[in-house]
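We were asked to recover a plausible sequence for a given structure. The inputs and outputs are reproduced exactly as logged, with field labels preserved.

PROBLEM: sequence recovery
POSITIONS: 325
GIVEN STRUCTURE:
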């Protein structure tokens, strides 16, 4: 790089001297940087900026969506592994009643439980997902020699970036789920009483080591991978359909409706894995660190379906859509 700059400076001096000698003022010759250096710099900056911008935007939104995330978590744990016709206690009847009951008995602090780990989780997970999306897409485009607007490439890039982000943020999602399920008024699911995020992480580590911090990570990776894969293609498909049917341009109304429809598609595809993830995270562990209710993600899926049917996978769906949509 130093020798290149020296050559450019020498060339500029020669050109200037020649211009003065001939009495003609020539425009300076632009220097040409190496395309590889420029491309590498752009990709590097894009990934770093994507990480922080994506994480910051997610943290801003989670302040308002966290209460619905808490409602969703409790509805997904309510009636866990019990049939619909049993007399198991169900203090939460729907998302709005659940919101007001929690706020009434636990206050603002109660409705915002788990906000601390939710901030850090969103910074890690969404930061990684948005920060890695473009580099992964560029890599796949170069590998398969295809267009960067290819839908399969977009789906694969979104899914892979989401899976990596979910894996990195899994311990924080574990803590968030357990803190949000805890209620001094209505005990829904197993109750974990943690003072704060650091206390929760240290207690989980003491109980079962590093492995327990990543309990349920496979379910979380499936959940986020499915959601990330569905979100982008559903948004563009709906937007193209709306433009074609209505004759409107790509305006804010079309974008807003496309976003709402995309959120619905994401919730339909993602909610079953979200229920499984919540239950895997919240279950009590025995002395060896193994879950008491479920041996694995597949075991949780089978047991949920056998006892609660298909509807069990869509508990908390309304709150989920309020959060995502």
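RECOVERED SEQUENCE:
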């Amino acid at each position: 790089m130093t020798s290149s700059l020296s050559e450019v400076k020498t060339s500029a001096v020669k050109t200037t001297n020649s211009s003065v000698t001939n009495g003609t003022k020539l425009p300076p010759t632009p220097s040409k940087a190496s395309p590889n250096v420029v491309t590498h710099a752009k990709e590097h900056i894009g990934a770093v900026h994507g990480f922080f911008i994506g994480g910051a935007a997610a943290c801003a939104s989670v302040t308002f969506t966290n209460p619905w995330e808490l409602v969703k978590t409790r509805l997904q744990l309510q009636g866990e592994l019990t049939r619909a016709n049993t007399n198991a206690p169900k203090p939460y009847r729907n998302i709005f009643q659940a919101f007001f009951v929690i706020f009434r008995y636990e206050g603002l602090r109660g409705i915002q439980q788990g906000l601390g780990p939710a901030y850090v989780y969103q910074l890690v997970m969404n930061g990684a997902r948005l920060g890695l999306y473009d580099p992964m897409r560029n890599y796949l485009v170069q590998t398969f020699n295809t267009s960067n607007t290819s839908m399969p490439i977009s789906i694969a890039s979104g899914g892979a970036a989401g899976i990596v982000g979910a894996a990195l943020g899994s311990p924080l999602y574990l803590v968030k789920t357990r803190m949000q399920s805890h209620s001094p008024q209505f005990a829904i699911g197993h109750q974990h009483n943690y003072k704060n995020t650091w206390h929760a992480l240290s207690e989980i580590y003491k109980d079962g080591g590093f492995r327990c911090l990543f309990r349920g990570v496979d379910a979380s990776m499936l959940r986020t991978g499915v959601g990330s894969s569905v979100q982008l293609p559903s948004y563009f498909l709906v937007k193209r359909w709306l433009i074609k049917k209505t004759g409107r341009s790509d305006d804010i109304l079309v974008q807003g409706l496309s976003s709402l429809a995309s959120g619905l598609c994401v919730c339909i595809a993602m909610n079953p894995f979200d229920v499984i993830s919540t239950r895997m995270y919240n279950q009590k562990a025995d002395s060896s660190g193994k879950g008491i209710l479920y041996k694995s993600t597949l075991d949780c899926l089978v047991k949920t379906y056998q006892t609660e049917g298909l509807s069990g996978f869509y508990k908390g769906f309304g709150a989920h859509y309020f959060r995502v949509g």
